[in-house]
Amino acid sequence: MVTIIGNKIIIDSSRATLDDKTAFEQAVNTVIEEGASEVLVDFSKTVYLPSELLGYLMGKKRALMGKGMDIKIIAISEPLKRVFDEARISGFLGV
Q: Which residues contact 38 (CB under 8 A, 6 or more apart)?
């Protein structure tokens, strides 16, 4: 489940699914269409992301940075942070 609060997107499930990926994409588009230049993401409840969602997140961050916009992870669970660290993507994603 994905929740939008202002320009913050929260993934409310511990194990995100491909349905969550689709909802996340729609949420990012909604936040941007509403005029936000920065999308904040809360993964504090999430311990697993499907690779498709992670790939989308990295690609979208790259695309937005080219437009002077950004996606920032503002909260992350410790298990997911370890995954990001092991994959060496924490720096790029600003974790």
A: 7, 69, 70, 71, 72
Do the beta carbons of residue 90 and residue 81 sit within 8 Å? yes
Name the average pLDDT for the chain.
95
End-to-end distance of the chain based on CA atoms, in angstroms? 22
93 alpha carbon, distance to own chain's centre: 9
User: pTM of the full predicted structure?
Assistant: 0.90
Kindly give, in sequence order, each residue whose CB lies less than 8 Å from that of residue 42, ignoring residues fewer than 6 positions away. 8, 9, 10, 11, 73, 74, 75
- The two structure tokens encoding residue 38: 């920065």
The answer to whether residue 70 scores a pLDDT higher than 90 is yes
